[in-house]
Every structure is written in C-alpha cells, then in structure tokens.
Amino acid sequence: MRVNTEGGIYLKKDVFDKEHFKEEVRDHVKKLYRKTMDEASDQEIFQAVSYAVKDVVINQWMETQHAMKKDDPKVVYYMSMEFLVGRALGNNLINLTCYKEVAEALEEMGLDINVIEDQEPDPALGNGGLGRLAACFMESLATLGYGAYGCGIRYHYGMFRQEIIDGFQVERPDDWLKEGYPFELRRPEYTFEIKFGGYVRAENMADGRTKFVHEGYQAVRAIPYDMPILGYNNHMVNTLIIWDAEPMERFELDSFDKGDYRKAVEQENLARNLVDVLYPNDNHISGKELRLKQQYFFVSASVQRAVERFKKTHEDIHDLPKKVAFQLNDTHPTVAVAELMRYLLDEEGLDWDDAWEITTQVCAYTNHTIMAEALEKWPIEIFSRLLPRIYQIVEEINRRFILRIQEKFPGDQGKINRMAIVQDGQVKMAHLAIAAGHSVNGVARLHTEILKNQELRDFYEMFPGKFNNKTNGITQRRFLLHGNQLLANWVTDHIGPEWITDLSKIEKVSLFVDDEKAQHEFMNIKYQNKLRLAKYIKEHNGIDVNPRSIFDVQVKRLHEYKRQLLNILHIMYLYNDLKEHPEREFYPRTFIFGAKAAAGYKNAKLTIKLINSVAEVINNDKSIQDKIKVVFIEDYRVSNAEWIFAAADVSEQISTASKEASGTGNMKFMLNGAVTIGTMDGANVEMVEEVGKDNMFIFGMSSDEVIAHERNRDYNPMQIFNNDQDIRKVLMQLINGFYSPNNSELFRDLYNSLLNTQCTQYADTYFILADFHSYANAQKAIEEAYRDEKRWAKMSMLNTAHSGKFSSDRTIQEYVDEIWHLDKVVVEQENL
Ligand code: NBG
User: Fold this and answer.
1) CA 287 to centroid of ligand 1, rounded, Å
2) Candidates 369, 556, 808: which one to mutate for ligand 1, based on the most atoms within 8 Å of Cβ?
3) Rounded CA gap, 615 and 478, in Å?
4) Catalytic residue among 562, 563, 570, 637, which?
5) Three-state DSSP class for 660?
6) If you take atom 3 of ligand 1, which residue's CA is the nearest one?
7) Strands (DSSP E) along 158-236, which ranges?
8) Is the shortest distance between the CB of 368 and ligand 1 below 6 Å?
9) pLDDT band at 264 (very low <50, low <70, confident <90, very high)
10) Which of 68, 201, 227, 280 fits a 20 to 30 Å CA distance from 753?
11) Confidence band (pLDDT; 50, 70, 90) for 267?
12) Calpha distance 303→293 (Å, rounded)
C-alpha cells in the first residue's frame, strides 16, 4: 500500500490519484469477496468502491478528532429521532471534491458511476422534512467547520418501501442493513446501560441528603455506530451517532436477578424490539409505549456520552454549558431535559438549582409543527411506570414551574391549566421543553409568529426572550451539486464556484436572465433533466410522458393539510373541461406525484388510490391526445427526489395557510429553477419576498383568514358545492363510480371529508373548496406564462438566482450565532 502523506490516500494535496484508486477498488473486491472485478456483482463493486472511499474518509475523520482534542471547541449535540441522510457514496465524493475523477476512474474500468451509486440503499432513518432537515444541518455544520454530533437511532428497518399495487399503497420492510452498510463504524467501547421500569428507593445519607436508588429495572445496552458526515472540501468530518440496542450479558444482570431466567428473556426481547422500526408517521404521534422507550433509549445514551466526553478533559461539571449544547429536534428527545437533571443530581450529586441552571443553559428546543395531532403527550401511567426516576424529576420540574407561573400571573388559574407540564393525566412534552430550554424556535417566520401569537401564546408571554425564528434551509451540495450536475456546472461556468459554500453568491445568475443564449442553455438543461426523469418514469411506471410538456410536481409526505387532494381534484376539473371543450387551447402537462402515507392514515392512503385511479382513466383516454398525463412515482425517497427536483417546471406548495411550518422541498425546487405555485404558508412567504410576486404564483386564503374561520366556525363548504357546478361535477365523480367503476363507494370518505352534510362546520377542515378557484386561476396563469418561452426562462432563472437565503449554511450560522455559540474548528492536514 502506498503511504499517504497529506491527508488522504488518493487525495495528495487534494490531487486525486486515479490509478491508485482503481488499484484499491480491485483490492477491496478481492479482499472482501475473493473475486476479480469481472466476477463481482454491481453490489459488490459498490461495497468495494465505498470501502476505498472510506479509507480516505477515515483519515480525515481522525484529523478532525485531533483538531477537536487540540482546540477543545464548544460542540452541539443535535438530538433527533430522525436523520433522513439518504445515500452517502455520491455525496461523500462530492464533498471530497473527487466525484468527477472517481466517475472517470470507474468508467475506465468499464463501470457507470450511476449504476454503482444506485446499489446503495437509501438509509431512510426518517419520515420527511424533519428528518431530512437534520441531515442537511449535519452536512452544513461540517462544511462550516463546527464540531457537531448527531444523535439518533439505528433503526433496523427504516421508512417502509412503498409499492403501488392496483393503485393502492403497500408497505414493504426496508431492510437497509441486509448487505452490510459500508459507511458506519461500530463503537462498542462507548456502550451504555439504559434502564426501564422498576422502582425508586430513597435512601437517607449521613450528610442529610437523600439518595435515589433505581431498582428492579430491566436494562439494555446501547451500542453506538458512528457515521461520518463530511464537510465540503475542508477535511472536516463530524459524527452521526446512531444507537443500536443489545441485550445485557447474563452476568451483567443485577445480582438480585441473577439466575432469573424469565427476566433475562424479557430483557432480550426488549432489546430486540427497541430499535426495530421507525414509526412511519409524519406530523402525527402514535403515542405507543415502545416509542417512548425509543426516545428515552437514545436520549439517555446520548446524554451520558456527551457528559462523559466532556468529563474526560474538564474538571468542573458547571462548565458544561461552555462546551456543550443540546438541540432538541421537536419534542421527541425532550426527555433529555430530565435525563440530564438525573445525571447531574444522582450521579454528580449536584443540588437542584445548580443542576437546573446547567440544564437550561445546555438545552434548546425547535418546534416543527402546529398540527395538534403532532404535539406529544404521554399518559402519566405509561411514563411513570417506564421511567420512574425520570417521572419524579418531571413532577418536581412541574411543581416549581407552576410556582413561577403563579408568581408571574397571580390568581390566573387558566394559565396554570394551560401551561402545566403534568396535567389531565398527561405529561406534555412541549411544555417541558419550553420550561427547560433557553431557546424555543420555529422554522419559518410565519410559523414562529403563529407560535408566539396563537399556539404558544401563554409561554411567549411568560418567556418572550426565549422565542426566536430560524427559517429552514437545505444543502446545495446535495440538491444542486450532486442532484443536478448539468445546472451546477452551468452556474459555476457563469459565476464561479463560490455558491457551493456561499449560496448567497448564486444571486449573480440574475445577471444572465435577459441574455438569450443563457436562457436557452438554462432551459436546455431543464429539458435534459426532464428527459432523465421521463426515462425513469418509463422504466418504473411504464408511462410515456412528453418531455416538452409542463412538468408539474408535488412530492412530499401525503397529509391532508398538504392538500394533494386539491391538486388531483383540479386535474379532474381540467379533464372535464378538456372533454367538454376539445377545441380549447391547452398546453400539455404532466402532473407528477410522489408521496408516502403513514400506514394507518386512511384518507391519505385513499388519496393515493384516487390519484392512481384518475391517472388510469386520463392516461388511457386517447381523445385528449396526451394533453394531460398523471404519474404517481412509487417509493418517493431522497435518491429519486434529487432527479425530480432537477426536472420540475412547476413546484406545488399548496398547503392550507398556517399549517405547513416551513417546508423544505419548496426550497429544493426553487434552487433547481422550478416556479412555485403556492399559498402564503411556511417558508413560501419568505420565498416570495426573495424572488418577487411576479415570479411565483400565489393563491388562496391567508393564514389570518384561515385562523379566523377556524375560530368563528363560519366556513360552509356546502354553500360552495351548491353554487358551483364545476366543483359539484368533480365531487360527484368521487361517488358515482366515474373513477372507480367496480366500487362507486370507494372514495366516499374523501367526499365526506369535503362535504360531510351532517355537521357542516367540521367538513373540509383544510379549506380545499374555499381555495379551489383561486388555485385553478393560478394554474391558468402558469399556463400562460409557460407559453411565453422567454418570460418563463427568466422566471425560472430568477428562482435559482434568489434561492440564496435558503441554504442550510445560512440557517446553521444563525443557530450558531444566536443559540449555540460554537467555536470554529480548523482541520489541518496531518501526516497520519
Ligand atoms: C415538519 C414540518 C415541515 C418542516 C419540517 C422541518 C414535522 C413535525 N414537521 O413544514 O411539517 O419543513 O418539519 O422543519 O415533521
């Protein structure tokens, strides 16, 4: 093996040694599989290439560790139940700045890098936006040079793989670890014991203090696997720690339980089930006991690892907030607050006030939703039975918190009822997170305002200084540099490469928006990307789509508030119109959907079936001459998302105003030059501000209007139905078998969700009918704009040019400056 001198085996002073890389790939194929290149399968070659890349990564990882030891910077632990990291190989090559070189090397070996990348499973350790945001944040932290640990769970089965059978979603297990995953490292030396159940015994100590002893519990071992998170071109490699569960060894059982066979088996089962699956709910909480166990499991392990890492090099535990920040990604890891208190009280022997002071300085909380069904509450019965000591601590936090409320708002019992942490037989996790964190942030300006003025108003009145906004962002390295290489190269050719690490620089693209040659090139790249997607659709769906048609795309989780139903009802309306007026001019459109629905979410799953049923009818109707095509892309996930964003002309961001906290797909489309049709919701509001209302198609009610209707209960969809024959016709088609000839009742529940005549004020909770015409008009305006090629090219380019704000680099810098106060790390290339 050639000895590397500067920072990596193939990257000598950042110059890639192609021949040596090829040698390494061959060598890994041989060592791993006892095969030659000719004998190896694509999967085996993927593994070998990944191990060759990992060799380089490991060196930089060690360099980073050295730098961290030397500089002792403050670091953040980003605690999240979900990290939707997506495939690592391509992204690692991009961030090592040797993607092209590796592609060439592989080509010289007769291999196609796309085929090799395609062998990697998408580690889908997340549901949707919340998990993907965590992954983008990790990448930005490394790129900006901040020390960070992601803390999560090594689910053995990630987000289910979606198959569409007869138009219905079928969930298949995602066995992503089955071939072995090259980009992880098992670290058994950092194992911790996690305890569940049992009881707490109070012991009086000689010094008058009380010691709390936890007994009769079940325990599992938490074993960390480290995944490298590479910064872009800076030799920084941070760590995503995902915890796996294993049973205790028999001899490790409490002496009291030795020989207790039943207990041993129970503990084994506990470990086996604990990290089996990711709950497939987005913006919805299942409230299952196992979920609380998962939360405490990874949080307890992460808190222990963080504190012990700190203690290795620091004497005084009071200095913890100077070196460590915990960010709680939604309420899911909020039990960290009580776990840190437990550690400080029971293991470090601190008194309550000191422990509380440290805990509040360390912890900060991000809220990601106002959807009521996503706000976590645990029945006291479950919580106290599972986590007896933690529950005692939560009760004490609650007792003291209520005293503070009384102090601040004397005599206001309503406030106490609304704000208490333990109330109505439940433990309210958001209240705990706000009471204990020094910072509470929303994820887009509108969302933060709604939190302050509506959802969390009482808390805002009590702690105005804690509330702040951090508008979400995305990493341009994955969603442009990797996902859309044609456009990335074009941008770099025109304005230089600075945008890769400073997206605000992409503004300079606006210098070219009136240049016809540039317009032509820009739109031709879009066309190439549409061809690539059309080919994917042909291969996966068997549908021919016209790459010259408008690609109108809605990809995201399926949820009623996101209103895929509005989109498909509008397509049904267009189809009716086209049938009635065949002479009317109509610019061909391809409507593309991609979405997973939570396995137990009936209306969401029915909407998928409706989309596929409508597709079936329209795509096969020769009379409309392919003017409309409807495509549902199976198993929407990070890897195919990159291609979809690159190919979109129109981005559908049509949630009921006030419901989408931010959205991040909206930003990925914008970066790739798609034009948005959207409501004034989430981050759309800030996107309009950046790109101007002439370059976005805004429609529908405002969040204030929606909130007013909700409050006054004065919205009556039946009235719209009665007075509008277009809408009536479309809705009747849901129940007259037009799209379901074998079962006219199939879509009854969707019809009812819009028009339940028994109790009008509860129908159409998401204001679909109210926004219908305004949406249809915006769609018409899009068609007109698209016909004017120059106008559209300019709009598209302006969207890319004004997406600079929406980089996760910007978001992370704000978290660093205003919440975490981290120090930068500079990784020097060392001789390892
Ligand atoms: C989601 C919101 C999105 C937001 C992401 C990331 C949850 C609970 N919330 O609007 O619905 O973009 O979080 O902040 O999944």
Assistant:
1) 19
2) 369
3) 31
4) 562
5) coil
6) 663
7) 161-165, 168-172, 185-186, 192-196, 199-204, 210-215, 218-230
8) yes
9) confident
10) 280
11) confident
12) 15
Of the given ranges (1-10, 349-358, 736-745), which has the lowest mean pLDDT?
1-10
Mean pLDDT of 672-700: 98
Cβ of 655 below 6 Å from ligand 1: no
Q: Is the pLDDT of residue 265 over 70?
A: yes
Active site annotation includes 69:
no
When the pLDDT of each residue in the chain is averaged and rounded to a whole number, the result is 95
Q: Which atom of ligand 1 is nearest to the CA of 132?
A: 6
Nearest CA, atom 13, ligand 1: 130
Torsion of CA 483, 94, 106, 39, to 10 degrees: -90
Do residues 69 and 50 touch, judged by C-beta distance below 8 A? Answer: no
- Which atom of ligand 1 lies closest to the CA of 664? 12
Mapped onto helix, strand or coil, the DSSP state of residue 152 is strand
SS3 830: coil
Beta carbons of 260 and 253 less than 8 angstroms apart: yes
Is residue 36 among the annotated active site residues? no
Instruction: For residue 660, give the ligand 1 atom closest to its CA.
Output: 10
Which one of 332, 431, 452, 557 is the catalytic residue?
A: 557
Q: Is 556 a catalytic residue?
A: yes
So what's the pLDDT on residue 8?
A: 46
Which residue in the block uniquely carries the two structure tokens 């391509």? 90
Helix H, strand E, coil C: the string for 487-542 is HHHHHHHHHCHHHHCCHHHHHHHHHHCCCHHHHHHHHHHHHHHHHHHHHHHHHHHC
Q: Which residues of 99-111 are buried (b: 16+ CB within 10 A; e: fewer)?
A: bebbbebbeeeeb
Reported as a single tens digit per residue, the pLDDT across 147-199 is 999 999 999 999 999 999 999 999 999 999 999 999 999 999 999 999 999 99
CA angle (544 as vertex; 542, 546 as ends), nearest 5: 155
User: Which residue in the list 668, 794, 805, 810 is annotated as catalytic?
Assistant: 668
* 657 Cα to the center of ligand 1, angstroms: 14
- CA contacts within 13 A on the Cβ side of 398: 20
> What span, in angstroms and rounded, lies between the C-alpha atoms of 314 and 320?
9
Task: Write down the number of H helices and E strands in the chain.
Answer: 32, 25
String of DSSP letters for 437-486: -S-EEESSHHHHHHIIIIITHHHHHH-GGGEEE----B-HIIIIIIT-HH
Beta strand segments in 347-408, E? 363-366, 377-379
pTM, two decimals, is 0.97
Three-state secondary structure along 324-362?
Answer: EEEEEECCCCCHHHHHHHHHHHHHCCCCHHHHHHHHHHH
